[in-house]
From TrEMBL:
Residues 36-118 form the Carboxymuconolactone decarboxylase-like domain. PANTHER family: 4-CARBOXYMUCONOLACTONE DECARBOXYLASE FAMILY PROTEIN, CARBOXYMUCONOLACTONE DECARBOXYLASE-LIKE DOMAIN-CONTAINING PROTEIN. Pfam families: CMD (PF02627). The lineage of its organism: Bacteria, Bacillati, Actinomycetota, Actinomycetes, Kitasatosporales. Signal peptide: none annotated. InterPro entries: 4CMD/NDH-1_regulator, AhpD-like, CMD-like. This is Carboxymuconolactone decarboxylase family protein.
Length: 128
């Protein structure tokens, strides 16, 4: 993928939100297709985070959490639940979001999201 200012900005946001360790592990595969795939993911998903606009990182984080839960993408939900200290989303807001998820996406999605949040909080408290 062509190195653009937008891609550089998206990479910066991805690192700020997910952390260097996560991004380094995700981008470690040097195979050309893997590099291209990571650039595509970064430009697409993290490019929207890099946009100037009315949504703050906190707002974007809450939206991603709600959407990944609604889609049943608990691996992604868990990743983003772990980033909330860097996005400004509080534990109280996550707790309230879980009620919204259960009400609008169904109890199974809300319960799965709750288990993921509990796991993330346990890891955070253990310093992992």
């Amino acid at each position: 993928m062509e190195e653009t200012e937008q891609l550089r900005a998206a990479r910066g946001v991805r690192r700020r939100i997910l952390g260097d360790a996560y991004v380094d592990a995700a981008t470690a595969d040097p195979a050309p297709a893997a590099v291209e795939f990571q650039d595509y993911l970064t430009a697409t998903a993290w490019g929207v985070w890099a946009r100037e606009g009315a949504l703050s990182p906190r707002d974007r984080s809450l939206l991603v959490l709600a959407m990944t839960a609604a889609l049943g993408r608990m691996d992604e939900f868990r990743i983003h639940a772990g980033t909330t200290p860097r996005t400004g989303v509080t534990d109280a807001e996550i707790d309230e979001l879980l009620f919204q998820i259960a009400a609008y996406c169904g109890v199974p999605a809300g319960s799965a999201a709750r288990r993921a949040v509990q796991s993330v909080r346990t890891e955070r408290e253990a310093g992992r």
